[in-house]
Amino acid sequence: MPLRVNLVSADAEVWTGEASLVVAKTVEGEIGFMQGHEPVLAILAQGEVRITGVDGNRILANAQDGFLSMADDELTIVAGHASLVS
């Protein structure tokens, strides 16, 4: 079962879908998430969020000022500012 991922900014949903891997930057360093990862609550640092979809497509976003939460194979990233990179 893949991860369910929700990346939202203060004013919009940026990306929602299923992923096999997500790497995000926290104030303590980069962290990667895959299916079965233990629960985590962390403060988001300014930087890239790299998402690998279940189909292998890669999505890149910039995010800052927020937090991320991982539990029960669902990763939620809430950022004050976030946008997809073209």
Automatic annotation (TrEMBL):
Q: How does it sit in the membrane?
A: Peripheral membrane protein
Subcellular location, principal:
membrane
Keywords, ordered alphabetically: ATP synthesis, CF(1), Ion transport, Membrane, Transport
Q: Where in the cell is it found?
A: Cell membrane
Which Gene3D superfamilies does the protein's record reference? F0F1 ATP synthase delta/epsilon subunit, N-terminal
What the entry lists under InterPro entries is as follows: ATP_synth_F1_dsu/esu, ATP_synth_F1_dsu/esu_N, ATPsynth_dsu/esu_N
Q: Where is the ATP synthase F1 complex delta/epsilon subunit N-terminal domain?
A: 3-82
The answer on whether this UniProt entry bears the keyword Membrane reads yes
Family that this chain belongs to: Belongs to the ATPase epsilon chain family.
**Name the UniProt record assigns to this protein:** F0F1 ATP synthase subunit epsilon
